[in-house]
Design goal:
Layout (H helix, E strand, L loop, with lengths): L2 E2 L3 E9 L3 E8 L4 E8 L5 H18 L9 E7 L2 E7 L6 H4 L7
Antiparallel strand pairs: 1-2, 2-3, 3-4, 4-6, 5-6
């Protein structure tokens, strides 16, 4: 089982995109399910710029307290990747809600 930061135990991968992978994980310290978004390792300047933009957005989101937005628990760098840890919100996937909208 893959573990990040010595405490976030990956349960399963729930998504993947061009720049990030997404996981459901378990926080072994606070004993709760979490969502983790992990940047893909790349030396490409474009990818680095995209990750930097996401970091800026994550910091702004962490300062908000709006209903409907997940709570941010942690942002950290490990193994040349950036990680966003938020609350896990149980829901169907977008693919399940809107069949055919996302390419296989």
């Amino acid at each position: 089982m893959e573990t990040f930061k010595g405490r976030f135990e990956v349960i399963r991968q729930v998504g993947a995109g061009a720049y990030f992978d997404a996981f459901r994980a378990f926080d072994s310290v606070l004993r709760r399910s979490v969502f983790i978004k992990k940047s893909r390792v790349s030396t490409d300047a474009t990818v680095s710029a995209i990750v930097e933009a996401h970091l800026h957005q994550w910091k702004a989101l962490a300062r908000t307290n709006l209903n409907g937005l997940p709570k941010i628990y942690d942002v950290f760098q490990e193994y040349d990747s950036w990680f966003l840890v938020t609350e896990w919100i149980e829901s169907p996937s977008l693919r399940a809600l809107v069949p055919g909208i996302i390419a296989e």
